[in-house]
Amino acid sequence: SNDYKDGSLEQLLIYDPSANLIIIARYCSYHLLNVIPLLIISPIIGIIIGLDFIEIMAIILCLMIGSLIISAINLFTASITINNKSSLIFIIALPFTIPIIILAVLACNYFIVEQQTEYYWNYIELLIYLALIMIPIFLLAACSSLKQGINLSNS
What we know:
mainly alpha, 6 helices, elongated
């Protein structure tokens, strides 16, 4: 939103009209700055609460896959809100993010509490399939809404 307010986003789109590159760069930078530190801190927290190494790795795998999907959803909702000043539009993301969180928590529960690794891997496989389907869809939707938002502001 700061890039939109100061005009740098519009200048990027004028210089290179490929919004896909801008969206992918934003997506990657978000992971480098926000998700990677979370993944680095997670083992420390796991050791503090007394988890085994394998349990910590199971949680980190769920965090990695879930954060990929949720950040793509959030990028889409952020691109929708470029021209809209309402903060209630983020409610659109809830029906997509809550099932991802539930699947990740169920996977970790089956691995750590229930000690049933076959169910864990089934949930991980389901999360991977969802990531392969949802990430490209939400990134493409973010690109089109970004282009439309910039075009509407120029009109």
